[in-house]
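step: validate -> pass
step: tokenize input -> pass
step: predict -> running
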Amino acid sequence: MKMITAVIKPFKLDEVREALGEIGVSGVTVTEVKGFGRQKGHTELYRGAEYVVDFLPKVKVELALAESMVESAIEAITKAASTGKIGDGKIFISQLDDAIRIRTGETGPEAI
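step: predict -> pass
step: emit ->
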């Protein structure tokens, strides 16, 4: 099993969720986050005063998958989240040792 964590632009969330649904992903966890990467934030103007926005709003999407679905999930996220501009986000893939469904006690891929 693998855990995929994608940090994307907030307005792309619905497109990513729909793309993942189309390939059969049954559940995701979404968190509103703030951060910066290479773009290092940006400067904005508010009521005539200029100020720096260091941390940009992003959305973190996390999903646990069987290894057989990882490539299609990555492709779906990449296509749906891409704008072609700086700040589109990142996708991280990590090994998931185990999963347990609390209600039934199922473990491993059956718990997903």
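step: describe -> The mean pLDDT is 91.
step: cleanup -> pass
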